[in-house]
Amino acid sequence: MAKKKRLKIALIGYGAIGQMLFDVFKEKKPPIDIVGVLVREGRAKATQKKVGSKVAVVETLKALLKLKPDIVVEAASQQAVRDWGETILNKGIDLMVIATGAYGDPKLWKKHRAAAAKSGARLRLPSGAIAGLDGLLAMRLGKLERVKYTSIKPPHAWTGTPAETDFDLPSIKVPTVIFQGSPADAGRLYPKNANLAVTVALCGAGLENTDIELVADPTLPPGTNASRLEVVSDSGELKLERLGRAMPDNPKTGVLTALTMADDLMKIVRSSDW
Fold this sequence. Notes:
By secondary structure, this protein is an alpha/beta fold. It folds into two domains: 119 residues, Rossmann fold (3-Layer(aba) Sandwich); 120 residues, Dihydrodipicolinate Reductase, domain 2 (2-Layer Sandwich), CATH 3.30.360.10. Helix content is 35%, strand content 27%. The chain has a six-stranded parallel β-sheet with strand order 3-2-1-4-5-6, sandwiched between helices. α1 packs across α10, α4 packs parallel to α5 and α8 runs antiparallel to α9. The two termini are 14 Å apart.
């Protein structure tokens, strides 16, 4: 039997998510090699010290693609998706996107799907810090009557967002709704907090038929955030609540976000067609 090749991935960004991917692969030792990391100008030297000499640290997409990765993993921002997503897909290289809030723009979503279809690349959207998307995907084969996603984080996790202007975050003492609206608006206004709003919409009833609620909750256990997914369809109802640990250095992002990305990549190398 021929030996399976190793999966070569390249990262865009080296923040909390990127660091955790390195840690998970180091511990679990799957047949996956991180061959390169794309960072902002001026950050290459510091990042190189962190990742070691075996991983190329570059400052341009062109240099990253020269490493010939099988998959480029976006772990940076919605802007990175907008700037580089189409180029990557046009090259026939798979792209994993976690900043799915960028796809609150239907034109960008359509453009990236078309690029992937034309080149044969795959556009991969991991589930992020939520569970239950498998049920939602199945239920949409019938008739979805209602889909609502609620993201719940401590007040300080909403610092640097419109909520900081609209509310006195440090003074919030009870769970408080800071946003109600569409997935596109949630992803646009809260680009570091509400990407999953768009993921849920794309997996279910669409951008126009999904309700989003963002909540500042000071009663959450320290170091955690939560979410709630509610689905009503002709096949039944789904109600799912999740309480997860936030990244130690980034309360806006859950640990489960990085773990679902790692799990999706490890599923690729476990698949029979790899």
